[in-house]
Design goal:
This protein is an alpha/beta fold. The protein is built from 12 helices and 23 strands. It has helices at 64-72, 90-93, 96-102, 112-122, 193-205, 209-222, 238-250, 267-281, 296-303, 322-334, 353-361, 380-399, and strands at residues 12-14, 17-19, 22-24, 29-30, 34-35, 40-42, 45-48, 53-56, 80-84, 107-110, 129-131, 137-139, 144-149, 159-163, 168-172, 226-229, 254-261, 285-290, 306-312, 315-316, 319-320, 340-347, 367-375. The strands form 6 sheets. Strands 1-2-7-8-9-10-11 form a 7-stranded mixed beta sheet. A 5-stranded mixed beta sheet has the order 12-13-14-15-16. A 5-stranded parallel beta sheet has the order 18-17-19-22-23, sandwiched between helices. The radius of gyration is 24 Å and the shape is elongated. The structure holds flavin mononucleotide and fe (ii) ion (2 copies). One fe (ii) ion is lined by residues 87, 89, 154, 173.
């Protein structure tokens, strides 16, 4: 029977392979942390073989009905035999239980760690789970799914699924971007896709760069015709995302400094603006963010390839300003490839911000090229010291290729 699709756009990636995901246009925050200026999508895919039907990943809680309706335009829900869980995070996996109930004969297919998480998070009984190892395949009838270990992209249980006949790589979070716009990388309305993909990489994948390198290698070996991630558009041109991931996972940095600062009465700001001018005059690319208004997505994106960082904070209650504490801890957690730091501070009486900053950054092994704390507003000699620090930072950055 020919299916007439009227209610939804369900792009057909290949014969009998459809996108059945949902677009969350209005979501503005992810993981209670990450800004979503363009919303996001939860991409799920339906693969229909001549013998069996598989659903690859599912959707965020709250969108079960929409996914259900989309699948019904293609097949009966009860026909689903396999539900592939590439990742156990609830944005892809929380509605799996709902579909396992609607399709009582269905089996959850996931990694060993995924099986444990499916039990803990979603109460999926072990007798309905099939654990797959590297290279295992499932034959759906003319459609063969192969499973590839890809741990820590983004949690320990993550894996890829590869549809052999159509050479489609379902990479889940890896290669994703938070945007609801567009279906494919070459759609007109996804012009800034790599910009969004870079923020996403900084926020989600940067802490796991080594695993990212391995995942990228495996993805390239598969030589996919299409990359179908679980957030954002699919890549009809895999080379486009491979090329940037090559640099980002390798931690390739530029002659670039990210400046993160906060100021209450402008003393720190004067120091920061002085070093920015020095760096610019040394032909260093600079991106500067006032932490009171900065967007985490912008910071994460610029951390992906900044070789240096300047942190500016006044002393507040014997330590850093709370926004600088946040930024320093974020820096530590995201593990960017940034190698050199300069710390600038103004204080009123005892100081203490720089000590706390140095303690916070200590485990990152970043080289602190220099630090300066000034009592109150900077005098000319203080600003000369700031300029020297700027030249020292620029020299370090330029000598490090
Ligand atoms: C709420 C608050 C708490 C402060 N706590 C300290 C402190 O514990 N130790 C200190 O040396 N200075 C403290 N100061 C003084 C500031 O560090 C000082 O005014 C500094 O020059 C401000 O730099 P800014 O102009 O960049 O905001 C505090 C100031 C404020 C407003
Ligand atoms: Fe995730
Ligand atoms: Fe996700």
């Amino acid at each position: 029977m020919v299916k007439i699709m009227t209610n939804y756009a369900l792009p057909e990636l290949a014969n009998n392979v459809h996108w059945v995901g949902v677009k969350d246009w209005n979501r503005r925050l992810f993981d209670a942390l990450i800004p979503l200026p363009k919303g996001t999508s939860y991409n799920a895919y339906l693969v229909q073989g001549t013998k069996k039907v598989a659903l690859i990943d599912s959707v965020n809680p709250g969108f079960e009905k929409e996914l259900e309706s989309k699948i019904k335009e293609l097949t009966d829900i009860g026909d689903i035999h396999y539900i592939i869980m590439n990742h156990a995070e609830p944005d892809h996996a929380a509605s799996i239980k709902h579909f396992m109930e609607l399709a009582p004969d269905s089996i959850l297919v996931t990694s060993e760690k995924g099986a444990k998480m499916a039990d803990i998070y979603f109460d999926v009984p072990a007798d309905r789970v099939q654990v797959v190892e590297e290279g295992d395949t499932l034959d759906l009838g003319g459609k063969t799914l192969r499973f590839i270990k890809a741990p820590w992209l983004h949690w320990p249980e993550t894996m890829f699924t590869f549809l052999e006949e159509d050479r489609i790589l379902f990479s889940c979070d890896f290669f994703g971007a938070h945007t609801a716009f567009g279906f494919y990388d070459d759609d007109d309305n996804v012009g800034e896709l790599l910009y969004l993909a870079k923020s996403y990489f900084g926020e989600i994948m940067m802490p796991f760069r080594k695993m990212g390198q391995k995942g990228l290698e495996k993805a390239k070996e598969l030589d996919p015709l299409l990359i179908a991630p679980s957030h954002g558009p699919m890549y009809r041109n895999p080379g486009k995302i491979f090329d940037v991931y090559e640099k980002w996972t390798a931690g390739e940095t530029k002659e670039k400094v990210i400046v993160l600062y906060v100021t209450m009465w402008n003393s720190t700001e004067v120091m920061v603006k002085t070093i920015v001018e020095t760096l610019l005059s040394e032909n260093i690319e600079v991106c500067m963010y006032d932490l009171t208004t900065a967007d985490l997505g912008d910071i994460a994106r610029d951390l992906v390839d900044s070789r240096g960082i300047v942190v500016g904070t006044p002393t507040v209650l014997n330590g850093m300003h709370p926004l600088a504490i946040y930024a320093a801890n974020l820096f530590k957690a995201l593990r960017p490839p940034t190698k050199y730091a300069v710390a600038l501070s103004s204080y009123g009486w005892g100081g203490g911000a720089l000590k706390q900053l140095q303690e916070t950054l200590e485990p990152t092994k970043i080289e602190i090229v220099g630090a300066l704390a000034v009592n109150g507003p900077s005098q000319e000699n203080d600003l000369n010291t700031v300029k020297e620090l700027g030249r020292d930072l620029a020299a370090k950055i330029k000598s490090d290729k």
